[in-house]
Design brief:
elongated; mainly alpha; single chain; about 0% strand
Amino acid sequence: RDRLMALREVDALTMLRAFIQSQCDGSQKLAASKLGCTPQFVSLMVNGLKSIPDAMLPKLGARRVTVAEK
């Protein structure tokens, strides 16, 4: 069973930066190719100007989960 861990947007950003460093040798261009977006979009995400899309989270080892409380 998958372990769930609550992540904030800043945690996803940290995961993105780690992905770029560890899986792409620090290259945003290579990260863009692996993530299926443009290098410009990777730059916008890294700089916090765009949110990381839900569809991209699994490529970073994460997923968005919504929890409702009563």
